[in-house]
Structures are given as C-alpha cells and as structure tokens.
Specification:
It is built from five helices and no strands. By secondary structure, it is mainly α. Helix 2 packs across helix 5. Bound molecules: heme C (HEC).
C-alpha cells in the first residue's frame, strides 16, 4: 500500500504526543504530576530527609520511611503524614514550616529548605501527592 509510510508517520507522531502528554511536568489542567514529583520534590526529599527516614534507620526517627510512595503514605507514628489534597493538614508539610525551636522541625537544625522547595511540596500535595512507582519513585539514601 502506497500510503502506509505516511499513515505510520502520523501514528507515531500521535503516539509520541501521547507519551509527552502523559509525562509532562504540568498537565493541561495546570496540575502537577509524576514528572513534577521527580523534578521538584524528590531531589529535596532525597537531599534533606533520606539520611534519617530510610529503611535502615527509620525505626529511630518516628518510624517514618520516605523510601517509596507506599512507605511514605503508610509509615510514621502519626501516619498518614501525607494527606493528598490537604497540604496544610499534612504533617510532612507542617514540620517543614516549624521554627527550629520546635523538636519536630524538619529537616533538623541547622538545615532549612528554601521557600521555592517548600512551595513545590505544598503544590504537589495539593494536587494529589502523586508519587510514581518503580525506580522513578524510589528515593536514594545519601552515601
Ligand atoms: C538527622 C535526622 C533527620 C532528618 C535529616 C530528617 N528527620 Fe524527620 N525526624 C527525625 C526525628 C528525630 C524525628 C522525631 C522527632 C520527634 O518526635 O520529636 C522525625 C520525625 C519526622 C516526622 C514525624 C513522623 C510521625 O509520624 O510522627 C516527619 C513527618 C518528618 N520527620 C519529616 C521529615 C522530612 C520531610 C525531612 C526532610 C525535609 C526530615 N524529616 C528530615 C529525624 C530526621
């Protein structure tokens, strides 16, 4: 069939658009998705939190384990500490805003995450706290 290559080209462009649409940072609705988590939230949590809240050490730190989405949503003395859609009621966000005079301020002194990183976490929880599965959603422990 003569038109086959042309049809094939259209099909692959459509497939490509489909893939891009599904993994873009912010969807057409303006809501953050898995790519937003990977780009704007995961690096902050890995850098500031994983030293303590990983599978090996979580038992010493309120049993809160941030290694995967499933663990983050189901561990911690005050679980669930992430309430999708409700950032201001989520302990994970609340502790980030505490002054260092409070024992529960995270990350513990002297570290402090930036306003920009804080805003990204607020937005991510507000939009449903989507946390991808697999390697993308697996947080590494430093060193
Ligand atoms: C140096 C170790 C350390 C680091 C790094 C750290 N935490 Fe913690 N975390 C603790 C300790 C200790 C507690 C218990 C504090 C308490 O009960 O007074 C805790 C408790 C928590 C809790 C309460 C869990 C519950 O269910 O009670 C949350 C939420 C939390 N941390 C989030 C974070 C986040 C988010 C980060 C990164 C921004 C972070 N922590 C970084 C040591 C750490």
């Amino acid at each position: 069939m003569k038109t086959a290559p042309f049809v094939l080209a259209i099909a692959s462009v459509a497939a490509l658009l489909g893939i891009l649409g599904a993994s873009g940072c912010v969807g057409a609705s303006g809501k953050s998705d898995g790519a937003f988590f990977v780009a704007k939230v995961k690096p902050t949590l890995e850098y500031y939190c994983m030293e303590c809240h990983n599978s090996k050490t979580a038992s010493k730190f309120s049993h809160f384990n941030l290694e995967t989405g499933k663990l983050a949503m189901s561990t911690g003395l005050h679980k669930p500490v992430i309430l999708p859609g409700k950032p201001d009621e989520s302990l994970l966000y609340v502790v980030l805003r505490l002054g260092h005079a409070e024992a529960l301020a995270m990350p513990p002194a002297p570290d402090k995450i930036s306003d920009e990183q804080l805003a990204a976490i607020h937005r991510w929880i507000r939009d449903g706290a989507f946390w991808p599965e697999g390697p993308e959603g697996h947080l590494k422990t430093p060193r």
